[in-house]
Amino acid sequence: xTRQVLVPLELSPVQPPQGAVRTLRGLTMGTSWTVRIVASDxxxxxxxxxxxxxxxxxxxxxxxTWEPGSALSRFNATVGEWRTLPFELFTVLDHALAxxxxxxxxxxxxxxxxxxxxxxxxxxxxxxxxxRQAILTTxxxxxxxRIELDRATGRARQPGGCYVDLSGIAKGxxxxxxxxxxxxxxxxxxxxxxxxxxxxxxxxxNGQPWWVALEAPPGAGAIPESLVALHGLSxxxxxxxxxxxxxxGLRFSHTLDPRTGHPVANGLASVTVLHxxxxxxxxxxxxxxVMGPREGFDFARxxxxxxxxxxxxxxxxxxxxxxxxxxxxx
Length: 330
Prior knowledge:
Strand order of the largest sheet: 2-3-7-8-11-16-17-18
Distance between the termini: 17 Å
Number of strands: 18
Shape: globular
CATH topology of the domain at 3-25 and 36-41 and 197-326: T-fold
Structural class: alpha+beta
CATH architecture of the domain at 3-25 and 36-41 and 197-326: Roll
Radius of gyration: 20 Å
CATH superfamily of the domain at 3-25 and 36-41 and 197-326: ApbE-like domains
CATH class of the domain at 3-25 and 36-41 and 197-326: Alpha Beta
Strand content: 25-35%
Low-confidence stretches: none
């Protein structure tokens, strides 16, 4: 298999850290997490593992729609009242709404009712697509501009009937949160992975950066393997193969277009975004997937976003990189 090697433009030699790579693992958000750190044998690994889990649990406690008692679930149940949100939840919601506006609603954090209708939320799965009237009725509840924010006080308000779902951004934020916490503990060389979303910082003891292969759909063997050095970078992927159901020979992806009420069906198999902040990479990958291979590519190129698009063809995949990503090719 051929390989494409991608390195950050600012990558330069650094002094290798002392110690060995230690690996910590756990579960969160219905998936797994893995953190690799460079630490001495005397490092308090158990304490670090417990601290990482606390950061992830905080995201679940605040942002999960699967937890009836989460801060987000309580906000979704309000009607017309201002509610003070925890700092982390307010931060993520603020960024989500900003991207919703910038993307013209291709990314919309209020798609929760559609997520449930199509069987990808906590209300249960389904084997067949919903009928047209159900989709139209549900779409009437969608609209990012129905959410109001008061940044001075950290409060939010919705008129009632809104259902905010942050699953397209919260996992990336969790990766960032873990990375920030590790730095606070004095750890500067690490690789964080939560459910496929990644963040790397520093280097390994051999002086090499954290090399990772960009995620690709099953059967994409003809596409060159892309290795990227996550040196102060995160990588997030949105793909139609991650979660879906099939009915009458058709595939219905969990990535929904808020503008139509249907799962995306634009030929995109996956979009991977590289960005210093995983929260932004995570949400942007979703937005670009919804936009599709043309609109999404133009949107990313105009904003200098490093992104890889894998488009399904009749018998294979076609890869396209934005100029910002192609510039990283070594």
